[in-house]
Structures are given as C-alpha cells and as structure tokens.
Design goal:
- It holds the Pfam family TPR_8.
- There is one protein chain.
- With 186 residues, the protein is an all-alpha fold.
- The protein has 2 domains: 99 residues, Alpha Horseshoe (Serine Threonine Protein Phosphatase 5, Tetratricopeptide repeat); 81 residues.
- Helix content is 83%, strand content 0%.
- The chain has 9 helices and no strands.
- Helix 5 packs antiparallel against helix 6.
- The longest helix has 45 residues.
- It is elongated, with a radius of gyration of 24 Å.
- It starts with a helix and ends with a helix.
- 27% of the residues are buried.
C-alpha cells in the first residue's frame, strides 16, 4: 500500500515540478522519508541540478536513484548533463554506455547527450557523428528538427575555426610580402 501511495505522490510531484516547486519538494520529502523510491531520488536530483545548482547534492540523488533501480531510464537522460557540468566526461560516457545497453531507453536522447560531451571537449566531428545518430534514432519530427538545429550550430562552430585559421594565414602571408618588398626598397 505504501508503494502505491508513494507512486501517486511521485506522479503529483512530477506534475507540479514545472509550476510549483515548493509543493513538488514537499511531496518528494514525504516519499524519501519512507522507503527507497528511484523516481523521487531522480526528481530531487533534477531539482538540485537545474534549480538550485547544488551539483554535489544532485549527484548524490542521481546515484541513489541508480542504486535503487539501475534501469530507471529517466536518470540516464539527465545525470550525464550534470556530469558534463562537472566536467566529468569519462563518468558521463560510462553512464551513457549503461544507458545504451538498456533496451527501454530512448537512444536518440542518449546520442544527443553524447554529442554534448564531445562538443564540450571541442571534438566537433565526433559531436556531429553523435547528432546524426540521434537524428537517425529519433521517433518524432520535433526532435529531428531540434537535432537539425544542433547540427547547424556545430557546423558554424567548425566554420568559425576554419575562418580564423584562414585569416591568420592571410595575415602571415601579407606580413611576409611587406617585409620582402620593404627589404627590396632599402
């Protein structure tokens, strides 16, 4: 009976997360005061990560959620982003590997998180590869459109790097030409 009540409270907390954070936290504290609940720990981790920016606490709750139920898929969509914020890319990759191994996860969302890891490390070609895999795995048009926008953004970052290298090369050639010309005049 307590599990059923906790599940109902969790659903209410999840519903109120976007508009009434205080009510959400109260319900989660009630659930967490009793038995272990993966969903409540995951949502509390999101609150500490996204709202309060208390990353150590968020990590603690996400890990607790995974310890309670390592197949609780929602955690695999948000926990890697906390690890990215903490610059713990190896751990984020490991979490994604586990997420990819679970049959019930949304692979497109996991590929997007993987692309974010590569982008933060300035591995733009790898990021593009992960985004293309996300687009291929996507099951709805809006997510595919979102991925297209991300691909354009990454492509712009790549082009900015190429343009600055070309400008530097042009400046170097121009400086060399001026030096040669000036030395001929002397």
């Amino acid at each position: 009976m307590a599990t059923y009540t906790n599940d109902i409270l969790y659903l209410q907390a999840l519903d109120s997360y976007s508009y009434d954070l205080e009510q959400c936290v109260q319900k989660l504290q009630y659930i967490l005061g009793g038995e272990d609940h993966a969903g409540a720990n995951y949502l509390m981790g999101r609150i500490y990560h996204e709202q309060m920016r208390d990353y150590p606490k968020a990590k603690e709750y996400y890990l607790r959620a995974l310890c309670i139920d390592h197949e609780y898929v929602q955690t695999y969509y948000y926990y890697p982003f906390l690890l990215i914020d903490l610059c713990d890319y190896k751990e984020a990759e490991h979490v994604l590997e586990v997420g990819f191994s679970l049959p019930q996860t949304d692979k497109a969302s996991l590929y997007f998180a993987q692309a974010c890891i590569h982008e933060k490390q300035e591995q733009f070609k790898q990021a593009k590869k992960s985004l293309k895999a996300a687009k291929h795995a996507a099951l709805n048009t809006s997510f595919r459109y979102f991925i297209d926008e991300q691909l354009r953004r990454i492509e712009e970052k790549i082009n900015v790097g190429k343009k600055s290298k070309k400008k530097k090369a042009k400046r170097k050639n121009k400086t060399t030409t001026n030096v040669k010309f000036n030395s001929l005049l002397d």
